[in-house]
C-alpha cells in the first residue's frame, strides 16, 4: 500500500486532534498502509523569510526541524495534515510549516494525495472551510498532488474530550481506513 505521513499540528497537551489522529492512523494501518507520524510538539519551525534561495537549491537556508519534515513530506505517497481550527482557519504552526515546504516545489516530490483532518469547538458545517481552502492553496502549487479528502470533527472543546466521543473516533478510524 502507500507510505502515509501524518503531520499533527496541535501543540496542546491531550489534544483532541491528536486523539482522533491516533484513531485515523489505526484505520490506515489496518488497511495495510505504512504510516509515520510527525507531531509539531517540541519542534522548532522558523518562519519562511521569503529569500527564495530554495527555488535554486531545493534546500532552505534556515536550519531547524522543518528541513527534516520537508524530506519526509517529499518521500511520502500520501500526506495527512491534522489541525485544530483556530478562528476558523488552520493552526498558525500548520501554516508556518506549509510555507517552509517551498523547497519541495521544484523537486521530484512523491506525494500525490493530501488529506485534512480538522477539529474544532464550533460544529457548523462550514467551520473548516478556510482551513481546507488554505491547504488547497498549498496543494495547488504542487501540480501532481490533489486534495483527496477531508474530515471535520466539530463540537469538541475541552482537552481530552475526544476520548469520550465514540462517533467521532469511528469516523476518524473510517477516514484512515479509506486513505489511498
Chart the SSEs and their pairings.
Layout: E1 3-8, H1 16-30, E2 34-39, H2 54-57, H3 65-75, E3 78-84, H4 92-100, E4 113-120, H5 129-139, E5 146-154, H6 166-177
Parallel strand pairs: 1-2, 1-3, 3-4, 4-5
Helix pairs in contact: 1-6
Which properties best describe this structure?
Rossmann fold, five-stranded parallel sheet, alpha/beta, 5 strands, 180 residues, 6 helices
Assigned CATH architecture: 3-Layer(aba) Sandwich
Shape: globular
**Main sheet specs:** 5 strands, parallel
N-to-C order of helices and strands: EHEHHEHEHEH
What is the CATH H-level superfamily?
A: Flavodoxin domain
- Going across the biggest sheet, name each strand in turn: 2-1-3-4-5
CATH topology label: Rossmann fold
Quickly give the structural class.
alpha/beta
Q: Bin the strand percentage.
A: 15-25%
Overall residue-averaged pLDDT value: 97
Please give the alpha-carbon distance between the first and last residues.
Answer: 8 Å
Record field, number of beta strands: 5
The number of helical segments is 6
Broad CATH class: Alpha Beta
Q: What is the helical fraction, as a range of percent? A: 25-40%
List the domain count as a whole number: 1
Task: Describe the structure concisely for a colleague.
The chain has helices spanning 16-30, 54-57, 65-75, 92-100, 129-139, 166-177, and strands spanning 3-8, 34-39, 78-84, 113-120, 146-154. With 180 residues, it is an alpha/beta fold.
Amino acid at each position: 500500500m502507500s507510505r502515509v505521513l501524518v503531520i499533527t499540528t496541535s501543540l496542546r497537551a491531550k489534544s483532541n486532534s491528536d486523539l482522533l489522529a491516533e484513531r485515523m492512523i489505526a484505520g490506515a494501518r489496518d488497511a495495510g498502509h505504512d504510516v509515520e507520524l510527525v507531531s509539531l510538539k517540541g519542534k522548532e519551525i522558523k518562519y519562511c523569510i521569503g529569500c527564495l534561495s530554495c527555488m535554486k537549491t531545493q534546500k532552505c537556508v534556515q536550519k531547524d526541524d522543518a528541513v527534516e519534515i520537508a524530506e519526509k513530506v517529499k518521500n511520502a505517497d500520501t500526506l495527512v495534515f491534522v489541525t485544530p481550527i483556530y478562528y476558523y482557519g488552520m493552526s498558525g504552526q500548520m501554516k508556518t510549516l506549509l510555507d517552509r515546504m517551498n523547497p519541495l516545489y521544484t523537486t521530484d516530490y512523491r506525494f500525490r494525495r493530501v488529506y485534512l483532518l480538522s477539529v474544532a469547538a464550533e460544529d457548523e458545517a462550514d467551520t473548516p472551510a478556510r482551513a481546507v481552502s488554505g491547504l488547497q492553496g498549498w496543494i495547488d502549487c504542487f501540480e501532481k498532488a490533489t486534495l483527496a479528502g477531508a474530515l471535520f470533527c466539530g463540537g469538541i472543546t475541552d482537552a481530552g474530550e475526544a476520548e469520550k466521543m465514540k462517533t467521532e473516533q469511528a469516523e476518524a478510524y473510517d477516514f484512515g481506513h479509506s486513505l489511498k
